[in-house]
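so my prof wants the structure for this chain in the tokens format not the other one, which i didnt know existed until like an hour ago. anyway here's the sequence
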Amino acid sequence: MDIDARGPRFAAAVTTVVLAAALITQNPWILALQTLAFALGAAGGVTRSPYGWVFRTAVRPRLGPPTEFESPEPPRFAQAVGLVFAGLGLVGFTLGPAWLGLAATGAALAAAFLNAAFGYCLGCEMFLLIRRLTARPE
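here's what i got, hopefully its the right format
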């Protein structure tokens, strides 16, 4: 079943704020919360992530009906990619080296910002590229 395309973009906006706070403060606890949000989104899909729940219960009822839908698989893959980068950032901030935390968190922040501001999901595009490259010719 397809999902409201505004949901992942809302989640990307919240993720942008959380990752910016984690990067500015270099606080591993903030990054750990975002890592958990990515893990829940990757495991259960974006509609079951914390930001998906907020969108579904608090934001979507205040909006008009959705006009654009998308497949849930690319955003779910994007959550898994975000999980990898946030996990690397968490390792960098807690165990070192600090540059790993900064670089990985910065990369995740850049991807989330692109989705939030411009609707361009890097993880989703990676998913589609991998699918095209691994498709078996008929």
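also thought this was worth mentioning. Residues 97 and 137 are 44 Å apart (CA to CA).
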